[in-house]
Amino acid sequence: MVYHSSFVDEEGITKACGCPLLPLKSHIKGPAPVSEQDKTDIVDEAISFFRANVFFTNFDIKSPADKLLIYLTFYINVALKRLEGCRTLAVGTKAIINLGLEDIPVPGETGFPFPGLFSLPQSQDEAGTCLNNS
Q1: What's the CA gap between 81 and 125, in Å, rounded?
Q2: Name one GO molecular function term (predicted).
Q3: pLDDT of amino acid 132
Q4: Which of 7, 8, 9, 49 could form a disulfide with 3 if both were Cys (CB 3.0 to 4.6 A apart)?
């Protein structure tokens, strides 16, 4: 059974490229609103559902948050592949930091892993906000 995001209420949620900017538990300032520390955020859901959802080739999208869940599942998979050969915590930490510093293609650019999943950015600002690579 595929697990879907619990963030189905779209009211008051800002979107960039059709991707909802859902609240995150973070101290880092960014385009997404800050979530309360005791509440589950979309990243928590992606991590919790990863083991189950990674086995499915088809995923029925029920809300825009499901699109973000798909993308985060992909990103977690990329992160795990980067950690594969790391023998120490320091090497693994460096690998994940470097992954976070890489330029990420936005929808419509060559190399974006899911063409058609998100809408194309209407401006450079939206492209930068979409995947926070500005």
Answers
A1: 31
A2: actin binding
A3: 57
A4: 49
